[in-house]
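Researcher: Let's walk through a ligand-bound prediction step by step. First, I give you the protein sequence. Second, the SMILES string for zinc ion. Third, you return the three-dimensional complex as structure tokens. Ready?
Model: Ready.
Researcher: Here are steps one and two:
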Amino acid sequence: MNLFKKLSSLFSPGKTDADAYWIAARCNRCGEVIRTRVSLSNDLSVEYDGDATSYFCRKVLMGEGHCFQRVEVELTFDANRRLLNREIHGGHFVDEQD
Ligand SMILES: [Zn+2]
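Model: Step three, the predicted complex:
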């Protein structure tokens, strides 16, 4: 029962998950769309450049199929944890409406 509650809160949309930045990426090799969650409070490493503070996150995504292509995503956020820049290797980003 506790596990079910945890799972259902994981998958229920919205308010409790303002902490999250979601990535959707399509693998260049097999076309699988891989989604992953970046926690803005746990997954970011802080970087100082002079007076500027930014946050950086690198994720390696692997699909659930038999494809062994790794999709590497690098995200840069500003001091307010808003996305500044994103790069991807081995795949490309899928916009939400796709
Ligand atoms: Zn793939």
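Researcher: And what stands out?
Model: The pocket of zinc ion is lined by residues 27, 29-30, 32, 63, 67, 69 (CB under 6 Å). The helical segments are 2-11.
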